[in-house]
Design brief:
Distance between the termini: 62 Å
Number of helices: 7
CATH superfamily of the largest domain: Methylglyoxal synthase-like domain
CATH topology of the largest domain: Rossmann fold
Mean pLDDT: 78
CATH architecture of the largest domain: 3-Layer(aba) Sandwich
Helix content: 40-55%
Structural class: alpha/beta
CATH class of the largest domain: Alpha Beta
Strand order of the largest sheet: 3-2-1-4-5
Shape: elongated
Order of helices and strands: HEHEHEHEHEHH
Strand content: 5-15%
Radius of gyration: 25 Å
Low-confidence stretches: 149-175
Number of domains: 2
């Protein structure tokens, strides 16, 4: 999880909503344990029609149906939900057996990726990485990730020990300034020593 956060992946907010879209029966079966984990964390679940029906049949309650990007005339639609800030996490693992569906799948995937980037929402395209992210969020519930300063006092407005609302900020600039200052002192000391040695020899 720390590695994901370090690369800029945002943490899903508490009481946020995950949108799940998975193609094919086998992938839906693989998704089930992670979806149950998402609900156990108190997050809401929205899903495409078939994925929502599968999860509901397996006992996952409260799944909201959001229709696909390629179904703009059907409401509510995932694009509308994204624009309204109703989705905080995306999983999109499509599967197509026909050329026509494959083309629609590519268009849907492109729109979702673009929206995720525009809105700063984490988007996963594999069940493995999504499951790892969810487990990381669960771990953080018991082991909060802090953003305390490594030198001096914490940044203004940031509490110690609390779960961060977004990406923890490590004060790298401060560390860089300290390193430059140390190098400058060493260089000055070396130059002084050389000057003293030259004066003595003279």
């Amino acid at each position: 999880m720390k590695a994901l956060v370090a690369t800029g992946v945002r943490l899903v907010p508490r009481r946020g909503t995950a949108f799940l879209s998975v193609g094919g029966p086998a992938l839906k079966v693989q998704l089930l344990p992670t979806a149950q984990r998402v609900r156990a964390l108190g997050l809401g679940i929205a899903a495409t029609e078939d994925t929502a029906a599968f999860l509901a049949a397996q006992g996952v309650r409260g799944v909201r149906v959001l229709h696909k990007v390629s179904e703009p005339d059907r409401h509510p639609n995932v694009v509308e939900a994204l624009d309204r800030g109703e989705v905080d996490l995306l999983l999109n693992v499509p599967l197509s057996l026909t050329q026509e569906k494959f083309e629609r799948m590519l268009e849907d995937e492109y729109v979702l990726r673009r929206k995720a980037v525009e809105l700063g929402i984490p988007l996963f395209t594999s069940l493995e990485s999504f499951a790892a992210y969810v487990e990381g969020v669960a771990w953080l519930e018991e082991h909060p990730l802090t953003g305390d300063a490594l030198y001096g006092s914490p940044e203004r407005g940031r509490e110690r020990g609390g779960r961060p609302e977004g990406i923890p900020i490590v004060p790298r600039r401060r560390r860089a300034r300290v390193r430059r200052s140390r190098r400058a002192r060493r260089a000055t000391t070396a130059a002084t020593a050389e000057t003293s040695s030259a004066s003595t020899q003279g």
